[in-house]
Amino acid sequence: MPRSESQELELSSSFQGVNWNVFLQLWEGLVKPSGWADKTGFRPETAPRLLPNMMILEVRDADFLIRLCGTAIVDRLGIDPTNQPYDVLVEPDQRAQVLGRLWEMCRYPCAMQVILSHKSFSFAAKAIEALFLPFEDDQGRRFLLYAAEPLMGETSPNWDELEPSEYWTVSRRYFDLGFGVPEGTG
Length: 186
Known about the structure:
Elements: H1 5-12, H2 20-28, E1 37-38, E2 54-59, E3 64-69, H3 71-77, H4 95-107, E4 110-119, E5 125-136, E6 142-151, E7 166-176
């Protein structure tokens, strides 16, 4: 089902970061009737400011495998999680909920925006706007593209309680790509 003009406008005008327009235009040009964008046509170098803040997750039967992780993400995390399951980046008590949100996103497919607060190892406060988008390659393998952009002027509501490299979800929002969004989120 093709997306309406209002859905396209909502997606492209709903982000705070300054580098999203080029990235979203590129992605929207690759969307197939299935709702999954064509991964083979995606060229991350067309959004060079976001490249260090991108991660590609392969959707597998039971988990999400990190296939590529940008240098800025590696710097923030203090580790390179490439070729590890995504859940290694999630606190054990949050894994079921976080992975459940990703599976919901894959089921429709839809896009997901998350605003995170992060306390880096240098104890600098960072607010991050993250976007997850669905991709599919020629063989039908599915991927989620995670792209993030730091925001200015936002911190966690419980900043003093965060440990270095810990994230706090400030908000989450799903975007309908023509196939619906998880119940109770749209």
